[in-house]
Write a structure and sequence with these properties.
The chain is α+β, with helices and mostly antiparallel strands. The chain contains 16 helices and ten strands.
C-alpha cells in the first residue's frame, strides 16, 4: 500500500447513539467508498469492504482465502488469532478441505430435516416460556429464555448433555470475546475441545441418534477431528441465535408500532425475521479474508497478501439495494437478499435452523405475552460490543 489509511481501525469501534446501528467509523467509511484502506488494532494495514455488491464479490471469490494461516489474514486481537490458527475449524479452511468436512454435517441442517424438528423446537420454546412466566417478573430474557432455547436444540442435535451447558456457555463467551487474552482463549479452547473429544470417544462405543455419534462412527475421522467439528457447531449453534433472539426482542419492544403491526398480522413473522436479520446483523465486526492474488474490487486493486474485512452490517444497509430508508426497521420490507449469514461457499450452515428458531420464538412471545415490555430504561441496557457476535448481556423484561 502506497498511501496511509485515513485513521487507525480500532475494533470494537465506538458505537453511536443507536445500539442497532453499525459503528459510525464503519458507516462513515461506507459513505466515502465501498472499499477503503484502514489499519487493524496491531497496526497492520487492511481493506475495509462496506458496500453490498463488493462484500458479495469478495465472499464469493476463491481468490480470497478464509484460511487464517494465509499471509496477510487480518485479526482483531491476539486471542482471535490464537482461536483461528491453533486448530482451525472448517470455516477457517478453503476448498477442497472445507467442502469435504462441511459435507459431513450438511444433511443435518437441510430445510427438510430442520422442518421435521419444528414441533420439537416449539415444545422447547413453550417450556422455557412457561418456566420464565412461572418464576415471576421481572425476568432476564437472555438468561431465562433466549439462551436456553438454542442451547437445548443444538445439544439435542449434537448429542451433548445439556447438564454441561453452564460450562460450555462460559467457555463460548471467552472464545467470542475480542478482549480475552491469548492465554484465556487457549485455555477455553483446550477445555472445550477435550470435553468434546472425550464425548466423541464415548459415542464411538455407545452411539445414539445424533450428529456426534454419526461423526464418531466415520473411519476417516479421529476423535480430535470429531471434536473440532462439534466445537464449531456447539459454539455457533447457540451463541448466534441467542444473541439474535434477545436483540430482536429488544428492537421490537423499542418500536411499539412495528410490534403492533406484527402482532396484528402473524403471517408477517417469516418476513419480519429476515428484516430483523438484515437490520441488526449481529456479526458487527465483519468477516475476514486474505487475498491470495491481486484482485480488483470496487474499482481498487487488493494485492496478494493483503487482509480484507467484509462489513456485513453496512452491506445490509446499502441504500442501493435496500432503499433510502435502509437505516430503519420495516417489517414489511423484502429483505431476503440480506447478507446476515454471509455469502458464498462459507455461508452459515445453520441458517435454516436459526430462521425456524427465531420464527417460533417471536410468534410465541407475541401470542402468549402481549404485555411484554422492557423493565429498565433503554440507557441501562448493556450490549456486547466487544464480542464477535453482537447482542445483549441481559435483557430485563416484565409483563
Amino acid at each position: 500500500m502506497t498511501s496511509a489509511p485515513p485513521a487507525p481501525l480500532t475494533l470494537p469501534a465506538p458505537y453511536g447513539a443507536c445500539p442497532f446501528t453499525p459503528p459510525p467509523a464503519c458507516t462513515e467509511a461506507a459513505g466515502r467508498a465501498p472499499v477503503t484502506r484502514w489499519r487493524l488494532p496491531d497496526g497492520a494495514p487492511c481493506w475495509l469492504v462496506t458496500g453490498y455488491h463488493e462484500v458479495r464479490s469478495v465472499l464469493s471469490d476463491a481468490r480470497f482465502s478464509a484460511d487464517a494461516r494465509t499471509p496477510g489474514f487480518p485479526f482483531l486481537s491476539p486471542g482471535q488469532r490464537e482461536l483461528a490458527t491453533a486448530r482451525p475449524s472448517f470455516i477457517r479452511m478453503d476448498d477442497p478441505e472445507h467442502a469435504r468436512l462441511r459435507r459431513m454435517v450438511t444433511k443435518d441442517f437441510l430445510v427438510r430435516r430442520v422442518e421435521e424438528l419444528r414441533p420439537g423446537i416449539q415444545r422447547i420454546v413453550d417450556e422455557r416460556l412457561d418456566a420464565m412466566l412461572a418464576a415471576g417478573r421481572p425476568a432476564d430474557l437472555v438468561r431465562d429464555f433466549a439462551l436456553p432455547i438454542p442451547s437445548l436444540v443444538i445439544c439435542l442435535m449434537l448429542g451433548v448433555p445439556y447438564a454441561d451447558h453452564d460450562r460450555f456457555q462460559s467457555l463460548s463467551r471467552t472464545l467470542l470475546d475480542n478482549t480475552a487474552s491469548q492465554e484465556d482463549v487457549t485455555s477455553a479452547h483446550g477445555e472445550l475441545t477435550s470435553f468434546l473429544e472425550r464425548l466423541a470417544e464415548l459415542k464411538a462405543r455407545d452411539p445414539g441418534d445424533d450428529i456426534l455419534s454419526r461423526l464418531a462412527a466415520r473411519p476417516d475421522l479421529t476423535p480430535r477431528q470429531v471434536a473440532s467439528l462439534g466445537f464449531l457447531l456447539l459454539v455457533t449453534g447457540h451463541e448466534s441465535t441467542a444473541n439474535m433472539t434477545s436483540i430482536s426482542v429488544c428492537a421490537l419492544l423499542r418500536d411499539p408500532a412495528q410490534t403492533a403491526r406484527l402482532r396484528a398480522d402473524p403471517a408477517l413473522v417469516p418476513a419480519a425475521v429476515e428484516e430483523l436479520l438484515r437490520y441488526l446483523t449481529i456479526i458487527h465486526l465483519g468477516l475476514a479474508r486474505a487475498a491470495k492474488e491481486d484482485v480488483e474490487v470496487g474499482g481498487v486493486t487488493i494485492e496478494a497478501g493483503e487482509g480484507v474485512i467484509c462489513m456485513l452490517s453496512t452491506a445490509n444497509r446499502d441504500p442501493g439495494l435496500f432503499g433510502a430508508d435502509a437505516d430503519t426497521l420495516d417489517l414489511g420490507r423484502d429483505a431476503r437478499r440480506h447478507l446476515a449469514f454471509g455469502f458464498g461457499v462459507h455461508q452459515c450452515l445453520g441458517q435454516t435452523l436459526a430462521r425456524v428458531e427465531l420464527q417460533l420464538i417471536l410468534a410465541t412471545l407475541l401470542r402468549r405475552v402481549p404485555s411484554l415490555r422492557l423493565a429498565v430504561p433503554d440507557s441501562e441496557l448493556a450490549f456486547t460490543t466487544q464480542n464477535i457476535v453482537y447482542g445483549l448481556r441481559e435483557l430485563p423484561v416484565t409483563w
